[in-house]
Write a structure and sequence with these properties.
The protein has one helix at 2-16; strands at 30-33, 36-40, 45-56, 59-71, 74-89, 98-108, 113-124, 127-137, 142-146, 170-172. The chain is mainly beta and 180 residues long.
Amino acid sequence: MKTAKLLIFLTSVLWTIGAMALSSDREQPAVIEADDVEFDFRTGVRTYRGNVSVVQGTLQINSDKLIVNYKDGKMQDATAWGNPARFRQRPDGKKDDVIGKGKKILLNEVKNTLTLYTKASLKQGSDTAHGEIIIYDMAKDKLRVKGAASTTRAKKTGKEKGKKPTERSRIVITPKRSNK
């Protein structure tokens, strides 16, 4: 009985982690590898630690730790931590992968958002975004990039006494070449 329950649970984990993926990847099997795996059947929390790797179609996540939260058998969100944690996926209809990294990555299935924290970057082709927090709202197709949370502005020298300069958001958008 316990083995059958565990097998059903593991199958549901592999299929429902696909909810993080875009439509082109959702039908692919998910493979999750880690040095240590812990499932809390009561709370719906799945914790993966050590060399965590998630691959589902074009979706890839590499991190030191990954926590996936489920409610009523449906994935709510997944949070990955690393130095940095990395995200990669090929969106439907695009030729370039979206590549993201940050100390923390939050995939919110309910809101359909990807949030990258702390020295975050997001790149697709030659277009890049850097900031302390990057929020990509996939449902609304919106991107928000925030600089470091600091009220101290750097002087022209780049430093104030004992304080680091404020890091600002930076976005580089490469112009599209015309076929003339």
